[in-house]
Amino acid sequence: MKEKRSTSVQLPISRSSQAGDVLHSKSENSTGHPETRSGLEGEIEYLTPEKFVDHHILDRVPWLFPSWWSYREWKSELAAGLNVDPHDIIVVGSAALGFSLAPSKDLSAFHDGSDIDVAVISTWHFEAAWRELRAIDAIDRLHRGGAEADYLSWHRRDLVYSGAIATDKVLHLLSFGHLWTIAFAHAANRDPTIGREIRARIYRDCESLRIYNVKNVRKLRNRLIYASIDEDEPDDATN
């Protein structure tokens, strides 16, 4: 009697799957964050900008924090001072990844002088801030042509259109600015952010936060990919 042969077929593993396995097993630490700049560059190139933002920014213990517990406790205390829900606070920037994703900072590493960038998702605070900033007459309250007036104009023209308000230079102009300033000062006296300036950007909703970060990651991804292509091209001997 002949033995019945197995009809199962071993499917080949795609190169993309192999690359992903290597990236996630060798370039990340125990918290899932890339340990090196090259590891981060690999993640940016491998993942779509949307997946990168979801995996490394929106739903992750920030690089600076040792555990979910410490992150939740830190957010809960800050949220009480800001009068928002703790789930609506997300640490972003270099404290989230260990490297800055700002296109102008070239993936610079988190350092002793780095600030703590916080995203606060609050439709109420966004709408309140927008109404108050819109009501400011640059002639009456700000020096026309000065840095503060120019910054306010930039807010009106660009940031607010994208559903965001950067509070670092306009917080003193807002009705809730004093309470938020106190809350940030208290956060700067708690581990692991002792001695660091806390800077917040208010987002109208989670989609606005996602779109802003996806846009930055896409810029970085294109820059890395095109730089890699340029390096692979042979030099022009005539130049």
Please describe the structure with a list of short key phrases separated by commas or semicolons:
10 helices; 239 residues; disordered C terminus; four-stranded mixed β-sheet; 50% helix
Explain this structure to me?
By secondary structure, the protein is an alpha+beta fold. The protein contains 10 helices and 4 strands; from the N terminus they run ααααβαβαααβαβα. Strands 1-2-4-3 form a 4-stranded mixed beta sheet. Helix 4 packs antiparallel against helix 9 (177-187). Residues 2-27 and 230-239 have low confidence and may be disordered.
Which strand order does the major sheet show? 1-2-4-3
Distance from N terminus to C terminus (CA atoms, Å) equals 75 Å
Structural class: alpha+beta
- Uncertain spans, ≥5 residues at pLDDT below 50? 2-27, 230-239
Compute the CA-based radius of gyration: 23 Å
Q: If helices are DSSP runs of H or I spanning 4 or more residues, what is the number of helices?
A: 10
Instruction: Give the overall form.
Output: globular
Taken together, the total number of domains comes to 1
Percent strand equals 5-15%
Number of distinct beta strands: 4
Quaternary state of the chains = single chain
- SSE run: HHHHEHEHHHEHEH
Taking the sheet with the most strands, its summary is: 4 strands, mixed
Biased composition (Polar residues): 7-19
Region (Disordered): 1-39
